[in-house]
Amino acid sequence: MSEITAKAVQRLRSRTGLAMMDCKKALVDSNGDEAAAQQALRKQFADKMTERSDKEAANGRIGAYADESAAALAEVRCETDFVATNDKFTDLANEIARQCARTGITEVEALKSSKLEDGRTVTELLVDAFGVIKENMSIKRLIRIEGAGACYVHHNGQVGSSLAADHSPGDAGRQICMHIASTPMILGTVREDVEPGAVKEAHEKAAEEAVGKPPQIMEKIVAGKMNKWYAERVLVEQPFVIDDKKTVGAFGKEHGFALKSFAKFEVGRQ
Length: 270
Fold this sequence. Notes:
Blueprint: H1 6-16, H2 20-29, H3 34-51, E1 59-66, E2 70-78, H4 81-84, H5 87-103, H6 108-113, H7 122-133, E3 138-146, E4 148-153, E5 159-165, H8 170-182, H9 196-209, H10 215-233, H11 248-254, E6 259-266
Helix pairs in contact: 1-2, 2-3, 3-7, 5-7, 9-10
């Protein structure tokens, strides 16, 4: 039998994040073959993960990633709120979002089959994480938006947001993502993004409230009401949460970029 050195155990531990004794046993069982030991551990935990798949994954967090070409969010579920704030699980969620941004794949099963830069599939990434976390985990949904990106995840991991801009948004982009995460109602980035039925309904209501006024006055009243309605619902026209004396769009313009699109995920809500 090959000698199982401390360095070999440490190398396997650094790759898997598992306890020293688990790594040493796998190496002993694999006669010192590190690749075989890693595969054996992965198979072992894949079987245990399958056995645990009936456990409800009711908790979780939002993973986020952004670079100069795209931004992505991933809702990743686990069993307990304790694990949802665990550093290992946080890294896992963010890596899944990164893979979504990098590959452009937003369908869950397809992403699970895709290969990371280190050669593992996302499924293998999940299995390796299970070996440490020991909870049922699943990818619930993914979204990717094209453009120079920024992202933000609330400290408890329950809400995450991202944006895409025409130029690098830097930290200002992250601040706008904080606005997006904290704002309960955003119907679109600009007016043209808002669903026409909602606009029609709002316009009809504004017209009803202006009935009886002279036509020219009525037109101005309706326009004013619609401007206010849009300002409450359209991202670039909303008062910026950090400085409500300027709009979100104006804040972006001050920092050299225009918003193209945004996304927001909250755990457990579509």
